[in-house]
Amino acid sequence: MTQETIEIAGVEVAVVSQEECEAAEMVVCVRKGAFSPFADNVEAPCAWCGETVIFRPYAPIKPPKVCMQCVADRFLGETQ
Fold first, then answer.
1. What is the pLDDT of residues 16-40, one digit of tens each?
2. Which of 8, 9, 28, 39 has the most CB atoms within 10 Å of its CB?
3. Cα–Cα dist 65/54, whole Å
4. CB-based burial label for 63 (10 Å; 0-12, 13-18, 19+)
């Protein structure tokens, strides 16, 4: 089966099923207080720093939820 991809901000992103999403390494989320047009966001602590993050109710359940700041710090730190 050919995997479908889409381009977001110049990055190729794989389109996968909800079941495949459950095998993701993490779900990258925004911290509580960031703008969101949705009233039904779900809240949880960031798995790395403990800050409250928000995500959509249909986000994968199993992968840890990690805030964008932690991801940026970890991955930008690795490249600098």
1. 999 999 999 999 999 999 999 999 9
2. 28
3. 9
4. middle
